[in-house]
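Justification of resources, computational component.

The compute hours requested in this renewal are based largely on the per-chain cost of generating structure records like the one below. Each record pairs the submitted sequence with a full structure-token output. That output is archived, and it is also reused by downstream analysis tasks.
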Amino acid sequence: MNWRRFYVYAPALVLLLCLLPVLGLAQDMTNTSTAKIEQELLDKFAAEGTADFIVHFAEQADLSPAYQMDWNARGEFVYNTLKETAERSQAHAKALLEANGLKYQT
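The structure output for this chain reads:
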């Protein structure tokens, strides 16, 4: 287990930092029943055309089994579980961004 990689990437796996240069895409996302975009962000899109923001996803990884593991197994389990949860929960958002040719960083 590369612990440096774990500490660098694990927090980023549960958050999606997106750059959305098109206000129209932000409007499409606000029309879904689960998307919540603050007005301040929409105003920044309208004024500047781009904005950096963090998306918090509702799905949370269940890390409770880690408490029963030894240190090395725990690290691998936590890393893999966070990564799998992030991949699953971010799939729709990433597909939407890619379909519109937008840049993002997970």
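Residues 13 and 87 are 8 Å apart (CA to CA). The first helix runs from residue 3 to 13.
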